[in-house]
Structure formats: structure tokens, C-alpha cells
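Handout, page 2. Input:
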Amino acid sequence: MFVLVLGLIASATVPRWWAQQVGNQVDGSITTGVFVGLFYGFVFTLVPLVILAGVFLWRRTWRAVAIALAVAVILASPNLMTLGIVLGNGNAAHAGDRTLDVQAPAFRGASLVGAAVAIILVAYILHLRASRERARQREREARDELQAAQTPPEDPTPEP
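Output:
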């Protein structure tokens, strides 16, 4: 019951508060809105994705995954709050939307672009890592074949 009440209070206050914070930073400037949006979108997408990728690549215990997921959600909260304003349909989300329109122009679009760039960068790095592993595996197989071809075959006839 307590969590439900807390969620209702947060849904009524967080979008307005977040829009005011961003609006105060941007202060109506389109250029500032673009740069702040790119920063928030890129950093607060890249860092959580790197944390999640790291834990899935090196530590696969359920506890490590749960902690990494919690840290990633906390670090992604600026983007999640902006997403809540953009996709929300409550009064607070609409008020936050209007505030961002006036006080933080171009923030939402730039934030989306920054997040997309971060996702593409992480995907590219993971692709490079996977292709490097495939190349190393092919190299090991080729060395094994070469070594097998260079060793002389054993003579099946016994010496008298």
C-alpha cells in the first residue's frame, strides 16, 4: 500500500520537477537545449549499457546481475524521466511536456539522438569484441591444422 501511494505521488510530481530542472539548465536556448540533450541522452545511456554489458560478459551471478540492473536503472533515471514526460498521458506529464516546449526547446530530440548514438556505439564495440573472438578462434584452428600437417605420420610397420 505504501509503495502504491509513493508511486502515485511520484507520478504527480516527478515529471513537473524534472521538466523544471531541465528548463532551468537550458533556459530557453535552442543551442543549449541541443547540447544538454545530447549530453544527457549519450552519457545516461552509455554508462548503464556499459555496466550491464560488463556484468553480462564477466560476472553472471544472479546477485551481480541484480545489482548491475539496479545501478543501471538509477544511472539511466534522467533518460527515464524524460521518457516518462514524452510518453506519459497524465496531467503531470502534459505539464512537463509544456515546460520542456517553452524552457528547453530541442532537448527531447537531442536526448533521443544522444541515446541512439550511445546504443550504436555500445553495439559496435560488442560487435568488434565478438569478431575479434571469432578471428582468434579461426587462428587457433588454422595453427592446429598447420601443426597437424607438419608432424610426420607414424610408420605403421614395426622395425625388425
